[in-house]
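Sample entry (147 residues):
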Amino acid sequence: MDFELVPFKEIQDEITLQTNPRLAFRNILQAARKNCPALDWDQFPVDFIDPAIISSDCAFACDAYGANHLIQGLYSFFANFSGSDDENKYLAEYVIFLSYSGLVLREALLKAVIEGDFISCWGFHDGDLFLLLNRIAGRVSFLSDKE
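Predicted structure, serialized as tokens:
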């Protein structure tokens, strides 16, 4: 996969600046379309499920999928992606999963009741991690990798 095509700046900006998660996700996909127009981005039917409308019970039902699963919108994408060896689809998978998980985590952290100060990041377990937000003395701030 060509990482030069991943719109990292746009992903970070939308997740830390755009308060509407649906619009942020749409804007990220638009940036990805510009970077990789050879890929038909419309073939991936991803419905962004706003985490604000999902109860916290789903976080404790790890074996529950479908309507009770936090990232239900990724199932239709995965079904379309599964079994493909197209390099461009790996790019789509990377962008969509990174963006979606960042938005979901952001929404969860903004609503979570957490004691004390914290700093958060998100990304993939293999080292592609990005700063997200922190809370110090009760004040929440969005972070970027430049800070």
